[in-house]
Amino acid sequence: MTAERNRTNVLRFFREVIGAGNLDLLDELAVDEYEDHVALPGQGPGREGLKRRVSRIRAAFQPRHKLHAVIVDADQVAVHWTLSGVHSGEFLGVRPTGRRVEFDGVDIYAMRHGCMAAHWNVVDMWAFHRQVSGSDQH
Question: Which stretches in the chain have pLDDT values below 50?
Fold first, then answer.
């Protein structure tokens, strides 16, 4: 039952928080002392930092995520995703270009009692940079 709750809550994070912008739901889905091992510059610590991270990603792309795989192993959830959107806000120092972007990533969440407690990810930032520079037309 715990594995299914972990899966459900991470899916809610992608759909309801990142997708729909319900940042208040993070009070239910993430522990207060949430630890982001790949924090964005200036993100800040804890759950409040996670809220800032999501706000920046939403402002930069109004992203849509296609989830390819969700793998649950006890208290860890891994998600392989593709983000698509329009680069309409500053992201990692890159000013908005108005270009469509699409890039992949894998997130891993450590869960505690059904809540996200820690995060690691690997993202294809090379694809993002190619697309916003205009050297890779999508």
Answer: 138
Beta bridge partners of 123: 105
What are the extents of the domains in the chain?
2-133
Mean pLDDT over each residue of the chain, to the nearest integer: 95
The answer to whether 38 touches 53, Cβ cutoff 8 Å, is no
pTM, rounded to two decimals: 0.93
Spell out the residues 6+ positions from residue 94 whose beta carbon is closer than 8 angstroms to its own: 87, 129, 132
Reading the block at residue 98, the tokens are 């108005």
Which CATH class for the 2-133 domain?
alpha beta
Place of tokens 């459900």: 8
Do 52 and 43 touch, CB atoms closer than 8 A?
yes
